[in-house]
Predict the structure.
Amino acid sequence: MFPTFKPAGDSAVVIIFGNEIDEDLNRKVHAVARTIEEENPEWLVEVVPTYTSVYVYYNPLKTSYAEAVEALKPFLPAEPGKEEERIVEIPVAYGGEFGPDIEFVAQHNGLTVEEVIEIHSKPLYRVYMLGFLPGFAYLGGMDERIATPRLEKPRLKVPAGSVGIAGKQTGWYAIESPGGWRIIGRTPLKTFDPSKNPPSIVKAGDYVKFVPISEEEFWEIYKREWGEKA
């Protein structure tokens, strides 16, 4: 029966609201997370919402796991209000040097490259959570017609901004890193900058719209964002 409480290490409580990725459930997760942050108990260290749960990190010198659970229970009735649906447009140059796997994605799904671009850039994607890597956004809402398995052997280096598909998921690498997603394009935006506050261009609860751009537009924006050509 949800919600349930479980310990996470020696200084965190995880509140689990379900076990399926669902937009309404995710809104509930963020409503509870916001309520806890606003109440800001004196033992609170950090609140981290995920797809279906909220991790609440506490100072073990100020409270115990059992005490934290009892203190958190009154926050659970929090209901999602009218969210400000912030839409962040992410320009993407698809295919070519920017998207080396887009032809595989097309062939795997019996589509043309143009159809893959159209299908991928059509939805509004909800940012369910950030994690895995700095600025890495977990998006919901990808059309299953372009679902494609990960690479059998991950690449050792994926450029920052690379937009990819892994199974039924899509997203982008905010920083250069190894990765096994099928890369179909790249955004010229600097989507994660640790010198800024907040460092990520998106936050959980935002919506993302991918906007196709040309190679020329890519380099114009890239030079403005990064100050160089790579």
Notes: The longest strand covers residues 87-94. Helices lie at 23-39, 65-72, 102-108, 113-121, 215-226.
